[in-house]
Amino acid sequence: MSYIPMKPLLRYATANKIAHGAFNVNALCQADALIEAHEQLRSGVIIQVAEPGTGYLGGNAEFLKSTLDQKKLGAKRIADHVRKLAEQTKIPVVLHLDHGRTFESVKAVIDAGFSSVMIDGSAHPYEDNVELTREVVKYAHKYGVSVEGELGVLGGTEDDVFAEDSCYTNPMTVVDFFKKTGCDSLALSYGTKHGAVKGDHVKLRNEIVIASMENMRHEHIEGALVSHGSSLVPQYIVAEINALGGAVGGKGVPVEQLQSVIPCGISKINIDTDIRLATTRNFRELFVSNTQYQKDEVWQRMQANKSDFDYRNYLAPYIDQIVTGNYKDEKVKKYVQLMQNAVKEIALTATVYFGTVGDAFAFAHDSMEQCAKQYKTK
Predict the structure, then answer these.
(1) 210, 213, 216, 218 alpha-carbon torsion, rounded to 10°
(2) Per annotation, catalytic residue among 32, 98, 359, 366
(3) Are 260 and 210 in contact (CB under 8 A)?
(4) Closest by CA position to 83, among listed 98, 95, 68, 97
(5) What percent of the chain has pLDDT over 90?
(6) 156 pLDDT tier (thresholds 50, 70, 90)
(7) Are 4 and 93 in contact, with CB atoms under 8 Å apart?
(8) Distance CA 157, CA 248 (A)
(9) Angle between helices 273-289 and 235-243 (to 10 degrees)
(10) pLDDT value for 161
(11) Which one, of 274, 256, 337, 340, lies nearest residue 310 by Cα?
């Protein structure tokens, strides 16, 4: 089994100046699709679930209002499923929590079996962020689980992540944060933005990444740098959605800019919005081409809010089937195929863009148990 923490995957990526896409999922079938896509390209895969996504997987269609118990249930569902898939593949598989907010919610997914977690303390004062991240690291490393922190504030909105304005990461504090917390990777604020609306003039501050990495090298800090809010928002998908009756807008980060920052030190790039867009395009194609499906409540929900491209909202009537993998209805099986096709389209494209094709067997697949021993001896 190649179920591994994030650290060995990103260690190789950083050393070889490539980056792994990290893809957000909210359904078991999407994890299957991600692994299948990465098997085709012989690349390691990072499957990630945002904290509200664990609530959705726990059966709460109003995922932003999920209880801790619902998040625990969702985390257990996806962790059990991904570990089972990892037993059947040779490529390395990472299951990562995106934007954990509290120690309790992060502990819940570690206990459920996640191999990597993010604790986002960026909204707190610096010392409080350090203390929260350090507390998570202390717990996670006992089990060989990798930890990602965040320094600086990204603007934009995505799930329960919201900030009106950005606050760039200060490269001078990056080394201090790594030293004080012991985290394995760090998300920077350097010009990206959460959500689909990033503006017409996105300009990544490569110098922030360069300075951060140079400071780390000078102090012999082993760690990886991460890019959040980095969806490309493919304009061909936006145009296709709108041609099919949608009303979606927004522009993403130009792929050329992301490619330019990878050699500077970014080795993980988060992708969520693009999957939602591709899924919505696929559903609109189905309903427009096959009018018999338009009687379904999914279509009614899509038409009621044409600017909404979060599939969790319009698939709410079938949430129990979607999050358990128990597909009782033939139309739900069709919907699952559309979701999987969307994930593959986005993941295959990003993996080629970011340079990780063929890296799956180029490094040792250190297990969680092996990493736990390594952390203990540091």
Answers:
(1) -60
(2) 98
(3) no
(4) 95
(5) 88
(6) very low
(7) yes
(8) 15
(9) 30
(10) 52
(11) 274
Is the entire prediction scored with pTM above 0.90? yes
Query: 268 is written with which tokens?
Result: 């993980």
Q: What are phi and psi of 184, to 5 degrees?
A: -95, -30
Tokens of 261: 């920052």
Return the pLDDT at 164: 46
Report the run of H or E that residue 38 belongs to, with start and end. Answer: helix 28-41
**Three-state DSSP state, 239:** helix
Residue 149, CB half-sphere, CA atoms under 13 Å: how many?
A: 32
DSSP state of 306: T
pLDDT surpassing 50 at residue 163: no
Q: How many CA atoms lie within 13 A of 132 on its CB side?
A: 23
| pLDDT above 90 (res 1) | no
- As a whole number, the mean pLDDT across the chain is 93
Is 310 catalytic? The answer is: no
- Cα gap 180→118, rounded to integer Å: 16
